Amino acid sequence: MLRHALPELWALACIPLLSLSASIHAEPDPRDAGAAVPEAVYRSPLADYRRFEEPAEVADWRATNDTVGRIGGWRTYAMEAYQEDAAEPETGAESSGHSGHMQH
């Protein structure tokens, strides 16, 4: 009989501990204007802001523009990017999930 009552006895023994825990972690009543509340902590998002610093040496934009013009302008850069993509051909039919489309 005692074996069946043991869980109930443990539950009764834990009630004071639960009430003690609730009183320790009790929050103040939000309707009570005089209740003690923890101090609000504000950290500005700009607290770690660092001013932008120009690089020590900046190339003259006219000279840079002339260099790009001698190389061939933006089209040369576009062709370089296109050639890099074309240099990596697909290997086998499994390389693309769409390889079987439009084959009627």
Q: Regions with pLDDT < 50 over 5+ consecutive residues?
A: none
What share of residues is helical? 40-55%
Distance between the termini: 81 Å
Which class best fits the helix and strand makeup? mainly alpha
Number of helical stretches of at least 4 residues: 3
- Rg, rounded, reads 37 Å
**Using DSSP, what is the number of strands?**
0
Shape: elongated
**Major beta-sheet overview:** none
The proportion of strand residues reads: under 5%
Q: Estimate the mean pLDDT confidence.
A: 78
Series of secondary-structure elements, N-terminal to C-terminal: HHH
Structure in words:
This protein is mainly alpha-helical and 104 residues long. The chain has a domain at 63-87. It has helices spanning 2-24, 61-71, 74-86. The protein is elongated.
Question: Quick summary of this structure?
Answer:
The protein is mainly alpha-helical. It is built from 3 helices and no strands.
Question: SSE layout and pairings?
Answer:
Layout: H1 2-24, H2 61-71, H3 74-86
Keywords: Signal
Region (Disordered): 83-104
Signal peptide: 1-26
Pick out its properties.
104 residues; mainly alpha; 0% strand; elongated
